[in-house]
Amino acid sequence: MARRFKRTIKNKKVRHKLVENNNNKRSKLHTKLVKNAKLFVKNLSGHNLTDHETLLLAKGVKFIINPSNKNAIRNVMKDFDEFSRKLRCRYLYNDGRIYKRHPFYINSGYKPLDSCPAIENYIFSTKIELSRMKINKHTRNISAEELSAIRESKEK
């Protein structure tokens, strides 16, 4: 039993050293990136930019953050419900003419009951397929600090 205890202590020490080495490498890389980013980012505002804001701006105008897939399936189902509502309304109330909508028209949100059996079968089978859909998890393409920098810049 004593051997096992000593072994866990050694493993913890080794892990701690590895974590420290990784943190040192990250901090060196971070300072190098900030120096390079400051060459390409021109601050025209009176606000002093932090390192993370500078790194974020250095990524460029076309940079897109990976969206979180926290509520992805819920959003897909919500969008499909709206689509099915429009499909039912179009089946019930479309008379073939094209109407020009007023620019300030507000949707009523009316949800008709069942319509054509073919449409209802399509909606039902599509909902089942969407509920079975698996969403692949992906990694973030920005750090947590850069994400907080975005939030702070939105507030200002």
The overall average pLDDT, rounded, is: 79
**Beta-strand level of the residues, as a percent range?**
under 5%
Low-confidence stretches: none
Work out the helix count.
Answer: 5
Strands, total number: 0
Proportion of helical residues: 55-70%
Radius of gyration: 27 Å
Query: Given the C-alpha coordinates, what overall shape results?
Result: elongated
Look at the helices and sheets and give the structural class. Answer: mainly alpha
SSE pattern, N- to C-terminal: HHHHH
Distance between the termini: 59 Å
Short description:
The protein is mainly α and 156 residues long. The chain contains five helices and no strands. The radius of gyration is 27 Å and the shape is elongated.
Describe this structure in words.
The chain has 156 residues and is mainly α. It contains five helices and no strands. It has helices spanning 2-40, 51-58, 72-93, 117-132, 144-155. Helix 3 (72-93) packs antiparallel against helix 4. The radius of gyration is 27 Å and the shape is elongated. The model has no long low-confidence stretch (mean pLDDT 79).
